[in-house]
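Internal QA ticket QA-208
Title: Verify multi-chain structure generation after dependency bump
Assignee: T.L.

Test input:
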Amino acid sequence: MVPTAHYLVLSAILFAIGVVGVLTRRNVITMFMCIELMLNAVNLAFLAFSRHLRQLDGQIFVFFVMTVAAAEAAVGLALIVVLSRQKQTLDVDQVNEMKG
Amino acid sequence: MLPYFALIVLFPLLGAFVNGVFGKRFPRRLSAIVGCLTVGLSFLLACLVFRELLLLDPHNRTISFKLFTWIESADLTVDAAFLLDPLSTIMILVVTGVGFLIHVYSVAYMAEEPGYYRFFSYLNLFIFMMSVLVLADNYLLMFVGWEGVGLCSYLLIGFYIERKSAGDAAKKAFIVNRIGDVGFILGAFLIFQTFGTFNYVQVFERVSGQFPSPEMGFGLLSAICLLLFVGAAGKSAQIPLYVWLPDAMEGPTPVSALIHAATMVTAGVYMIARSAALYSRAPETLLIVAVIGVATATLAACIALVQTDIKRVLAYSTVSQLGYMFVAAGVGAFGAGIFHLVTHAFFKALLFLGSGSVILALHHEQDMLRMGGLKRYLPITFWTMWVATLAISGIPPLSGFFSKDEILFSAFRLGHIILWMIGIAVAAMTAFYMARLMFLTFHGERRQAAAADPSGHAEHGGHGHSPKEPSALVTGPLMILAVFSAIAGFIGLPAYLGSNWLEHFLEPSFEYRFLESAAHGEHGLTQEIVLTVIAVLAGAIGIAIAYHSYIRDRELPSRVAERLAGLYSAARQKFYVDEIYDRLIVWPIERVSDLVLWRAIDVHVIDGLVNGAGGLVQYWANGLRRIQSGYTRSYATWVLLGAVLIFIYYYLVTA
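Actual output:
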């Protein structure tokens, strides 16, 4: 059986990739996918702990996270579509009118 | 169910409300009817109460009625309750009676003025407040009336809202009265602290229990009395707070007659008489009252000698006569003070209304130097005013003779010879300046035509040459008041003519006062008669000098004025009291307000705090706004940074 630590390390690596992606990429769709990656890294950690502790709570929580991710995808992609129509670009640095 | 005498108070309130709220749409006649009718009904009810009181046992003549509990808090219970005893009944009769006559007079006097309904609304409100003041059965409710009449006085002095001088006079009256009112309310608080109640009867019962003999030196009771006297000095225009009353003549003449001669200004005398139980146990304070009274009487009489504005002479005369009343209270003759209050209400109201009639006939001319020879044109005014003049001069058998003599004799009998002597001198001065007013106004030949100013009265030229008596609404009250000025003295006959009915009637109201055991011995009737003759002679001499100076030898006054130029001009300028107050009180306050309160504290401290708070926020915000760059990825970095910090924090805490 694969030890729990392996899962957690993989989860951490995936999360870190997601973070770096969000911070470094300018394409909004890529950033969006990186966020999904972070969410799923967390899901993996939940599942690992759920199995390790032999409790179902973590698995239930994963369902919630997936639900939220689905909703987020729906709203986020809609926003991206509108953004690209308005600005003819997907570069987030071009969209900085909200600065103080 | 309300007893009918509660309506004495409520009718004027109703009148004030109706005229105040709906009056704008009323025709003038209706406003006048509402105003007069309500006060007239109050007067009738007051007469009924008076009759009912007379039917009661002489030692038990009080009717009280509680309307509702006004304040209830721990030990403090204050009722809105009325107390009708001889003292308050006499007062309410004067207030509503003279008040009614003046209302009727105002119907004609104010006929040409704008704001007719407003005038009657204020006047009714005044009667209401004055009734509350007089009928209250505790000091706190009296204070409500006390403040209320002050407010009405303010409103009515400033009735001619378009005139700046009227507004200034109103403010002056209000502010000077506030100074007195602070004394009154502090005195009332001290009463509550000492005796645990505001109710008159309870206070007096407790004071006679706690202070069986007068207080030696200056103690608690003296402090109470002195504070109350500060209030009385403000309301009744005594030194040093008298300065507002002469200026109050800016108001319409009926207001001067009602508020600033007959009723409101006597509230201080009433309050001291009401507190006789307290004052009679604080002899030191009583002496202060008497000295202030006589000083005021003298000072005001001196100023009145040389004034030329007809209403100002009367105003200073009022201040002077109020001084007499305080002398009476100060020597312990509270009944005599109230007696003079009553007779003074009649003849001074008459004098003011008469002067109003003159002013009306001459189209608002008030300078006596431009009157003269009016007796042919205004016969009724002329005769009635002479009645009042002789009454105030103390010529028998008119009312002022009895009341003034009662005061002077009381002062003498109770051992205040100096007060008596000054009183006699003031009586002579009173007779002089009043006769001077009459001679200048009504006798000799007309001076107005000669002195007619080129700017005004051009359109009044036709009327100006033959002034005529105003309508019966003006002369009626004059005649009624003249009758009372003549006969009112018979309610207080001196011992050598019979018995003093008023004194006996008022006795139950003063039952708790400390009675000295005839320490000053008995004085014979002969002595009283001699003193009376001296007083009458003083008055007669005053009139004779005035006759000589203003009818026989008309150059005399100016010669005397030249001889005593310094004194004359000082008296003309009212002894510079206003200027001194201006310099000593008003000016320093203005300077401190300007330089310290405004330019230092307001500009630097207050504004500094406000602007500083704003500036600080701005400064910080200027730095913080850079964080909001608009770049999504920088936000993401901040989120990450926050998350990492939280993570480190928990790591450190749990580790």
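Spot checks passed. Residues 196 and 245 of chain B are 35 Å apart (CA to CA).
Status: verified.
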